[in-house]
Structure formats: C-alpha cells, structure tokens
Design a protein that fits this description.
Layout (H helix, E strand, L loop, with lengths): L1 H18 L17 E8 L3 E7 L11 E5 L2 E3 L2 E3 L6 E6 L1 H6 L5 E6 L6 E5 L13
Antiparallel strand pairs: 1-2, 2-6, 3-4, 3-7, 5-6, 7-8
C-alpha cells in the first residue's frame, strides 16, 4: 500500500515538473519585470522631472528613437545615460508630469519595435526621494 502511494507521488511530481517547463525553473523564475526597475524620479533645475530606469541586462544600441510609455502617454525626450547601457532616463516637463497617473505601467521600446521592456507601475510619491540603487 505504501509503495503504491510512493509511486503515485513520484509520477505526480514528474508530471508537475514537466508541465511547468523544465521542472523547478518555475519556482526560481525571475520576477515579472526581470529585475528592471524605476530607480529614481527627481526634479532637475525646477523645470524637468527625470525618470531613471535600470535594467540588469544592457539596452541595445539601435538606430531608432527610444520611447517611454507611461499608461496611455508616450515620451520621447530621453535615452541611455551611461556607457554600460544599463540605465536610461527620460525628462518630462511639469505639464507632462501632471498628466501621468500614479500606478500607470512604465514601458520602454524603440520606434518601430512591436515589443518592449516593462518596469512596473509609476509611483509619483517617490519624486525626489533618492535612488533605489546607488
């Protein structure tokens, strides 16, 4: 009787492992945004709000404009900020910042690309609170 339960348990574990695409990968998979985050939101010269985004994988260098979407808004004034290609920043005017809704998803893409990278929801209360990463 115990042997039957053990065999059933082994079969179930193998079936579940195969069903989630390679077994324990499912339990150690990366988060929804794969480590990408909104690192900092700060005021620049009292004229701009800069949103700095970080990715653990470098952004590709392409001959295309980088675009940031927040909710249904699109912003073009930004791009890669350092030579290692892990950080991008976009600047919004005070009027543009006022149109951004708290909790809207942040997405980066390139002009003409059908897909992009997600960074989670915008939290407007983080304005001038400092970066998450140094």
């Amino acid at each position: 009787m115990k042997r039957t339960y053990l065999i059933i348990l082994i079969v179930l574990v193998l079936a579940v492992s195969a069903g989630v695409g390679g077994g324990w990968w499912y339990f150690s998979r990366p988060s929804e945004h794969e480590g990408r985050l909104i690192n900092r939101i700060r005021t620049i010269d009292n004229n701009w709000v800069e949103i700095e985004l970080y990715s653990p994988k470098p952004f590709p260098v392409l001959n295309a404009a980088m675009i940031m979407g927040i909710g249904d808004k699109t912003f073009f004034f930004g791009g890669i900020t350092n030579t290692v290609l892990y950080t991008v920043a976009f600047r919004l005017s005070p009027d543009q910042w006022a149109t951004v809704r708290d909790g809207d998803p942040v997405i980066i893409t390139y002009k003409g690309w059908p897909t992009g990278w997600t960074f989670g929801p915008i939290d407007k209360s983080r304005l001038d609170k400092g970066p998450i990463l140094p």
